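Here is the promised in-class demo. Please do not try to memorize the tokens; focus on the logic of going from shape to residues.
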């Protein structure tokens, strides 16, 4: 099985992900995305966004604030229920989530001798204060999920965009959870980004919508290039179901540390809107023109973690090609941070100038770089390791006949093609597959 350390090390070495606040010794479970990581993440979010809002006429985008009215978290149940059972080791002081330990564990898995305390509920929301006075009246929370910002805006969005049921609202944004046991690199952190879509339907049409979104989300990961045999659905059984859910599935991925949740697909019923109606005093019913019926819509949610998907993409793409003495990141070409590397064979005789012209042209649409140091073999390996799908080499024949060599990362196959055909050649691989 793939060693996580290898991914962490590649990420650090090549500018994908660094530990946060590194020159101060780092901050537990916080990470910074470097130049390549930021670009990969940006493309990932773009793909998700386009797959929701551009692909579907009935899905609208939203960007709501992180700080919201504290009553929202009372209505949502987060103040009362958003907690994990925390146990401590009386000897080494290690902390664990009781629900993640083997049932009946009494002895500390860390020091193997200390006794564990009784579980107590620990609320995961980060608290802060709004305004200059730190008193309880000013307590406010960093949102632990982006979903509530969508619910409280459902009528705004519906009216301003003239949507009718069924319709969805998509949002990408930061969420914060004071996790008891963060870990596994960017898998579980205290600050993370979510990509959530809430789909509003008439009660009775919820089961069908759930089935259809389950399938669509699985297809989305396939388009991202994720290995199918490493994905599965896990259905939540009675005890696992959240207080608001009628049915819930996780899309799980086989990470280097085992099968774990990547995305949640939940039928949240009319719980959230009913509660917001009750707590805000505003009528949140939907009026159906055709039947003259009034009702609170049901909500199907697809909730994906952006950082978790990043880890999934990186782990799935990592490949040690021993036969060819190279490490390759087999990223789907359309999300690769560098999509085309242009390599003039030498730094003289007009070759860099030709490279520059091609670069300027491709740069209008794609992420392109020029790589002109070291042998061509070394340059290929460097690009393979960061996942660049195409390398274009400019040599002396280019000057004579306006053709270049284009090399494909995974097969290492090389083809000679006219410069004028380059754009058309790469286009099918580099556009977002949202059809
Ligand atoms: P877990 O059981 O792993 O803590 P959860 O069931 O609480 O996750 P949800 O509340 O369903 O997670 O959140 C939806 C998605 O948000 C998750 O599938 C995951 O991708 C992402 N996510 C949740 N918590 C974190 C975290 N601490 N760090 C990174 N991503 C997270």
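The designed amino acids, position by position:
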């Amino acid at each position: 099985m793939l060693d996580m350390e290898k991914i962490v090390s590649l990420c650090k070495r090549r500018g994908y992900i660094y530990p946060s606040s590194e020159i101060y010794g780092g901050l537990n479970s916080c990470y910074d995305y470097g130049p390549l990581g930021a670009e990969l993440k940006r493309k990932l979010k773009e793909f998700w966004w386009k797959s929701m809002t551009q692909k579907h006429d009935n899905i609208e985008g939203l960007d709501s604030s992180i700080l919201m009215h504290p009553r929202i978290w009372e209505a949502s149940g987060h103040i009362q229920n958003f907690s994990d059972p925390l146990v401590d080791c009386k000897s080494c002081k290690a902390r664990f989530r009781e629900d993640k330990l083997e049932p009946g564990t009494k002895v500390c898995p860390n020091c193997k001798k200390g006794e564990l305390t009784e579980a107590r509920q620990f609320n995961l929301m980060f608290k802060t204060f709004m305004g200059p006075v730190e008193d309880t009246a000013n307590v406010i929370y960093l949102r632990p999920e982006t979903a509530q910002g969508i619910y409280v805006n459902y009528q705004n969005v519906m009216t301003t965009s003239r949507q009718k049921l069924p319709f969805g609202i998509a949002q990408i944004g930061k969420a914060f959870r004071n996790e008891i046991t963060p870990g596994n690199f960017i898998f579980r952190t205290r600050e993370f980004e979510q990509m959530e879509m809430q789909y509003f339907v008439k009660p009775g049409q919820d089961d069908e919508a759930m089935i259809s979104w389950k399938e669509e989300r699985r297809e989305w990961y396939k388009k991202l290039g994720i290995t199918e045999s490493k994905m599965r659905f896990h259905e939540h059984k009675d005890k696992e179901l959240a207080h608001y859910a009628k049915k819930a599935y996780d899309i799980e991925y086989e990470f280097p540390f085992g099968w774990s949740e990547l995305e949640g697909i939940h039928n949240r019923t009319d719980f959230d809107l009913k509660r917001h109606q009750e707590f805000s005093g505003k009528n949140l019913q939907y009026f159906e023109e055709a039947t003259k019926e009034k009702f609170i819509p049901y909500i199907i949610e697809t909730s994906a973690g952006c950082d978790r998907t990043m880890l999934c993409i990186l782990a799935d793409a990592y490949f040690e090609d021993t036969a060819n003495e190279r490490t390759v990141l087999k990223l789907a070409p359309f999300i690769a941070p560098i999509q085309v590397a242009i390599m003039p064979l030498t730094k003289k005789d007009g070759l860099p100038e030709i490279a520059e012209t091609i670069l300027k042209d491709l740069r209008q649409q794609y992420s392109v770089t020029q790589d002109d140091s070291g042998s061509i073999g070394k340059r290929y390996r460097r690009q393979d390791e960061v996942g660049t799908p195409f390398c274009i080499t400019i040599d002396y024949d280019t000057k004579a006949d306006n053709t270049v060599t284009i090399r494909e990362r995974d097969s290492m196959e090389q083809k000679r093609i006219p410069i004028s055909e380059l754009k058309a050649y790469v286009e099918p691989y580099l556009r977002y597959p949202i059809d």
